[in-house]
């Protein structure tokens, strides 16, 4: 692997001596490394089997978050070119320095990100959620976008993978037909990180929160908050700081499980039937 890393850095323009290559654990999709050369200190991700543009889409998402200016993101130095034998992305190494107020700063920063608005829901280009395609395009209707580009698309993938048995499929189709019953169509489209679980942020120098591994699009801000609650990992300080900037809507508790359904379908498609019972519980909650 040192040879591969050295070749990547050489292509990027760093031909200095390689001092250290250490695996970084925690990701489900790619191999990741902390890399130190005589010239600089990097974070490198490599994937020989991913879609050829997956790292370019990651770099694009980080740039969009950077432009919003609400939270820090790592600087991207280099992305594998089209036609490369394997995909890779090289970023700055962000040293971990958590502070007692890091989560509160993350909450405030996320609320500020959710003030970066657009006139439509979605995104100009498709991207990825994990290693799965995430179709976008622009829509003027949030329920329609959610139906066609999020829940409906993941349902199609699940059926192709044999993970949508007849009762689950029937309930999901019923839910999609009645989506407007629960999902509001008046929320301002705002920039979302799109895949914000506890592993997709870190506390950098001086406790500064950084966002990583985005799946950016514009949607209802509470779609993002619902996912943060799905698997836990965020403290009450995070939510209190968020609400200080942006209080939650009156309908949030009613729509939260439905918003979480998208991410459970993603996990069903990525990791298998162990997520099926959670999908079924939400479907029964809404449509019986």
TrEMBL record:
The protein's name: Fructosamine/Ketosamine-3-kinase
Example of a GO MF term: kinase activity
Gene3D superfamilies the record matches: 3.90.1200.10, Phosphorylase Kinase, domain 1
InterPro entries: Fructo-/Ketosamine-3-kinase (IPR016477), Kinase-like_dom_sf (IPR011009)
Keywords: Kinase, Transferase
One Pfam family matching this protein: Fructosamin_kin
Keyword flag S-adenosyl-L-methionine: no
Family: Belongs to the fructosamine kinase family.
């Amino acid at each position: 692997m040192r040879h591969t890393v050295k070749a990547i850095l050489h292509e990027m323009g760093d031909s200095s001596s390689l001092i250290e290559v250490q695996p970084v654990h925690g990701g489900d999709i790619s191999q990741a490394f902390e890399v130190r050369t005589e010239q600089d200190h990097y974070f490198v991700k490599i994937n020989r089997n991913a879609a050829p543009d997956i790292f370019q889409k990651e770099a694009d998402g980080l740039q969009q978050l950077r432009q919003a200016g609400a939270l820090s993101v790592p600087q991207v130095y280099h992305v594998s070119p089209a036609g490369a034998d394997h995909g890779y992305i090289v970023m700055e190494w962000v040293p971990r320095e958590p502070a007692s107020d890091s989560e509160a700063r993350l909450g405030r920063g996320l609320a500020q990100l959710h003030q970066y608005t657009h006139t439509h829901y979605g995104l100009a280009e498709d991207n990825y959620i994990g290693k799965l395609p995430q179709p976008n395009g622009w829509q003027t209707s949030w329920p329609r976008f959610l139906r066609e580009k999020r829940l409906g698309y993941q349902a199609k993938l699940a059926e192709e993978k044999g993970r949508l048995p007849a009762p689950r499929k029937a309930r999901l189709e019923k839910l999609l037909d009645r989506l407007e019953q629960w999902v509001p169509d008046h929320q301002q489209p705002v920039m979302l990180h799109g895949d914000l679980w506890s592993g997709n942020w870190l506390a950098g120098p001086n406790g500064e929160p950084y966002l990583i591994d985005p799946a950016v699009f514009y949607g209802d801000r509470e779609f993002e908050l619902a996912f943060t609650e799905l698997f836990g990992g965020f403290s009450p300080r995070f939510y209190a700081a968020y609400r200080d900037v942006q209080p939650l809507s009156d309908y949030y508790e009613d729509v939260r499980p439905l918003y979480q359904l998208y991410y459970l379908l993603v996990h069903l498609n990525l990791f298998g039937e162990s997520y099926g019972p959670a999908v079924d519980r939400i479907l029964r909650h809404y449509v019986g």
